[in-house]
Amino acid sequence: MNILRNPHTSSRAKSQSNSRARIALTIGDPAGIGTEIILKSLADRTLLALDAEFTVFGDQRYLRDTYDLLRNHGNLLIADPDRLDIVDISTNEAISLGIGNRASGAASFAYLDAAISATLAGAFDAIVTAPIAKSAWKQAGHDYAGQTELLAERSQVDDFGMLFVGKSPHTDWVLRTLLATVHIPLSEVTTQLTPELIEQKLELLRRSLLQDFGITNPRIAISGINPHSGEQGQLGHEERDWLQPLIERYRQQHPNVQITNPIPPDTMWINPARAWSDRDRVSLGHDAYLAMYHDQGLIPVKLLAFDRAVNTTIGLPFVRTSPDHGTAFDIAGKGIADPASTIEAIALAVELTKIRRESP
Predict the structure, then answer these.
(1) Any idea what the CATH number is for the domain that residue 257 is in?
(2) What phi and psi, each to the nearest 5 degrees, are found at residue 177?
(3) Which residues are CB-neighbours of 79 under 8 A, at least 6 positions away?
(4) Where are the beta strands (DSSP E) in 196-347?
(5) Which of 6, 70, 209, 289 is packed most tightly, with the most Cβ within 10 A?
């Protein structure tokens, strides 16, 4: 693969002020909607008004092909690749829209790998990643559960997590949900949920709320593991035996953190839904939520904020965000992909970068 900096745009990028947030954008799987949502996002007026500079990591041919295809689709607002800063990462293998395979997986891996290297070298403050197909990565010989795990490995960190962030268009309240366990079978959840893991996630969440969001006295809601949070051992013993004692110890160690007792999973999301939709009930929402496993946390997140939720990897030495959806191979090239989540991901990356810079 040949990695080049677009000579037209590199000189322009160098002239930008160092105070601007420097954001690397990867196009994800080139057979999916990544090129479309990136080009649509970079034409969005709200993003163009931000104090930031954007560099796209991907194959310039696919960006150009997508642009040529979409500019004939009615009145779509899309960015011209010739006017963007692009790190051109090309491959000789043919890739077709809508068909994720070994070649598209190898390409999307290379885009992210190059962006990580440049960011770790200090060229960028944040990476925003378009969606990849995990199956295509595996076909290309890259056995990772997802982009998050590669980012953590390359950054040499073990303490990291997936925090989903969504800002309500109705109340401006911000929903933040951290997953204790992520991409594992449901049958393995109870074996992986240990006091050590939950304490680690709580501390990771506390640090992120301070470092990334500037929240010094956070209110955190924590979900139970079992129905009715175990109902005093009748429906499961984890809450009684170790989760409640762990919470009480954590309160003593961090008196500035308000943390709930384990809330039954089927009722924990009622108040966030009220805070999301009703300005008079915003106070019912917490600063963050800790969910025990993937679907326990993401079903409510996607019900409330499907087109606005952003996946944020916390614990990295730089900011990383991504839209909370997949490659959508079935609609690639049709001009109907919604860039809303990507726009939110880019805006959040800029915001978090500036908060980190201002943190003591």
Answers:
(1) 3.40.718.10
(2) -130, 120
(3) 39, 40, 42, 43, 67
(4) 219-222, 258-259, 288-291, 310-314, 319-323
(5) 289
Bridge partner list, 161: 314
Which domain, by its residues, includes 299?
158-315
Regarding whether 309 and 162 lie in a shared domain, the answer is yes
Q: What is the DSSP string of 206-244?
A: HHHHHHTT--SS-EEEEB-SSGGGGTTTTS-SHIIIIIH
Each residue's pLDDT expressed in tens, for the chain with a length of 360 residues: 555 555 444 434 444 456 899 999 999 999 999 999 999 999 999 999 999 999 999 999 999 999 999 987 777 899 999 999 999 999 888 899 999 999 999 999 999 999 999 999 999 999 999 999 999 999 999 999 899 999 999 999 999 999 999 999 999 999 999 999 988 899 999 999 999 999 999 999 999 999 999 999 999 999 999 999 878 888 888 999 999 999 999 999 999 999 999 999 999 999 999 999 999 999 999 999 999 999 999 999 999 998 889 999 999 999 999 998 899 999 999 999 999 999 999 999 999 999 998 876
Calpha distance 152→204 (Å, rounded): 14
Clarify whether residues 308 and 321 are in a common domain.
no
Provide the token pair at 317. 């030495």
Distance, in Å, from the CA atom of 280 to the CA atom of 285, rounded to the nearest integer, reads 11
